Amino acid sequence: MRFFSFLLFTFLIIACQPKPVETHSNAYYDLQEPGVKSGGVKMISIMGGKYNVWTKRVGNNPSIKLLLLHGGPAVTHEYFESFDSFLPKEGIEYYYYDQLGSYYSDQPTDSSLWTTERFVEEVEEVRHALKLDSSNFYLLGSSWGGILAMEYALKYQKNLKGLIISNMMASAIDYGKYADEVLAKQMDPKVLAEVRAIEAKKDFTNPRYMELLTPNFYEQHLCRFPSAEWPEPVNRAFKHINSTVYTMMQGPSEFGISGRLEKWDVKARLPELKVPTLVIGAQHDTMDPEHMKWISTQVKKGRFLYCPNGSHLAMWDDQAHYFPGLIQFMKDVDAKKF
Fold this sequence. Notes:
Blueprint: H1 2-16, H2 23-29, E1 41-46, E2 51-58, E3 65-69, E4 93-98, H3 116-130, E5 137-142, H4 144-156, E6 162-166, H5 172-183, H6 189-200, H7 207-221, H8 232-239, H9 243-249, E7 277-282, H10 289-298, E8 302-307, H11 314-317, H12 319-334
Parallel strand pairs: 3-4, 3-5, 5-6, 6-7, 7-8
Antiparallel strand pairs: 1-2, 2-4
Helix pairs in contact: 3-4, 6-7
């Protein structure tokens, strides 16, 4: 009897002990913020303290830290919010970031600021402030952000652990040709004629222009849902666009580039990229998926991720392919399998 009493007493003591702390989970959500906690938000001073840009950290992983470069130029980080549904459960640390001129960052009116070269230096300042380096720094650029990511890597790849080019070709010239020779021909000829007539008059503020492009181009190649059903973060990002910067660099629409980026081309320099590189292309993209596959063969260590159901925002309309491929790439590089 004494033996059974002892067992019962021991069981009660064990049952009353606090449960082990889930150190892995707790470590991921410990942002190690000194002072007042800000939920990972950090304003970073750039250009000698002249301006500030907005960043937000999610998670804690010493070896995988992903900085997200949004498109536009001058859209916002908001359309990346689908990443919240996939990366935390994989233990990946990532950073939202609004580039200078975008909604959550300073929006100066000095037109001389809107050059690829200055944006590259801005990314480098952000990297330094976030303490990212070649042991952990993955850079993902989407659309215009892909241009910026390629340019950054061509100058600063020594700081990178991995590069992701999402839905962006290596030549604005080739992109323009693809828009004219492939995408335009998929439109109803009557619609295309009316679009071209408006463009010829440079009447881009005409409401009819977007009335035509939204169902006939954007819903087909930008985000493959009816525009009335576009995800709220996508709508919010477009609502917050800085149209002055966007038009100056990209031009008035996604139907080809006509701004300062019109002649941008780094195809010949792709072999200089030696950092592990993932190139993401989608079947219905505004960008040629075959061109993006080709990019993956030109860099030293390339991999191509194809999204058969996706468009320019494949992180929304082909999540089943986009996120597993992205996550696997980062984990393979981290494990030195790529």
